[in-house]
Sequence to fold (614 residues):
Amino acid sequence: MGPKAIDAGRHPNIELLTYSEVEEVSGYIGNFTVTIRKKARYVDLDLCNSCGDCADVCPQTAPDEYQMGLSTRKAIYIPFPQAVPCNYILDMDTCLGNNPIACGKCADVCEKEAIDFDDADELVTREVGAIIVAIGLDVYDPTEMDEYGYTRFDNVITSMEFERLICAGGPTMGHFVRPSDQERPKRIGFIQCVGSRNPSIGRPYCSNICCMNTVKDTLLLADHYPDTENFVFYQDIRAFGKSFEDMFQRSKEAGTRYIRGLPGDIEEDPETRTLTVTVENTTSGKLERHELDMVVLSVGVIPAADRDKIAGLLTLSKTSDGFYMESHPKLKPVDAPTRGVYFAGFCESPKDIKDSVCQAGAASSRAGALLNAGEIKIEAITSVIDPEACSMCGICASVGPYGAINWHKKEVATVVEAACAGCGACGAACTFGAITMRHFTDDQLIGQVRAVLAEKPEDKVFVFACNWCSYAGGDMAGISRIKYPSTNRVVRTMCSARVSDEMVLEAFRCGAPVVLVSGCHYADCHYIDANRQTVKRMQKLWNKLEKAGVRPERLQLEWISAAEGQKFAKVMGQMEEKRQLVTADEIAHAREALKPKKKRVAKKKPAQAKEARA
Fold:
């Protein structure tokens, strides 16, 4: 990676802003404005020549993050070898201080006078057309799983610490020793799935890279230290990539013992510091005890700690495991739901280097195609605001998941069509009829409701289904030839958030025994978080039905994904059962109790009022 980073730093069309954070992102596809905080380095990059004299005289030390805390660094340091730019940075939290200057030795010995204690953070802005999110990952901290003794036994280390110990550029300069006594371990155990595939700690997913990382480590040990005995305790070895199975077999041939079962207990001999691992071998069905010199915890990976901040800046949605959700898992695997934003690497899902490079190439290609296009085409399903009907309340701007509606107090709202995705949440929220959703207008959808229920409504289950998930789930049920009752009548909307109060009430007024509103799973909405508005609207409708004397259970809300044809059929069966329980008297009562009230009309502006009087 070093040469690649150097090439990027020297490329005339690439600007590297290291030691910086994104503070704010505004705008839309092709027209983003990004505000970036360049943190104070207290070292002038143009003057520093990385001679190292400052670090030699610095009296302050701190754990070296790059070496996983197994060695120390000075307060002024280069973050890691081959860093770009390869200049020193002053850690003011470790330094004795600059207000007042308590030490200043680094500045005294710097012949280039590169040390600047008066340096401060700087905010810069950049105009960009596309954004690629590649914030990486964090490594699971195993301290909460203390059954493996990570906090109690020195010779229980993580796979990341193992990498630093065996690396030639590590804290021991490549001499592989165990932390307790600096002796080379002869018997080493690797415990898999630490922090992965464990729902009890909120990590039910597979981290993808851990199995093959351990296989690689065992081959590395067999190559450098042939007399080492290696034991791998695992649930399943997932060697699914190209040549992975070959590596796995080579590891076995090199003498590594793979024991199917995770240890239940680890004990340490206080004198020899030897570790005794107790494990049930599920292959043989026997309880085994193994004496080891070192235990390596193959820790999983977790989403980056700042993912929520980035999600807020770019209006991104997340899956249930905390990773960012793509626009479509098959058709748009690198596109974010927000147009002009793309994913690369681990932020989208656990993947190895090869897959990350592939995704990065795809993301850069998508961004390049966008920038070269000059103009973009959008679907004709965006919202249109009637300025004459707009009451300037601003509700539409607050419910739109993409920030596509601009509104300021006492001003008519406007739509940025390039940013609008057509979910319809704003149209359903507007009580003044000021917003028209192209091709999914209120009149069109209510017209479908009336047409469907024009004849024998008591024999029908009325269903609102979102285009991306529940409607596609119905298609999946049909393609899979799954049987379900034929009484359902489905009206398609782009999102469940498009279903307004009036559409549901009109269905009951037309004699629908039961009504179902269905959409994407709560955490997996195609329109980021638009279905949150669905939930709020449904809760209000349930309360309204109850006050009107209509059983709230006649209105149902279900989350059905595009792949859940079986669930779609099951829900249709449940709705049919509910339909059969609704009496003719209940239908008649709902028709009468839910009669529409007079429509709200926005107050006319003063200028409009004068024209009306004239």
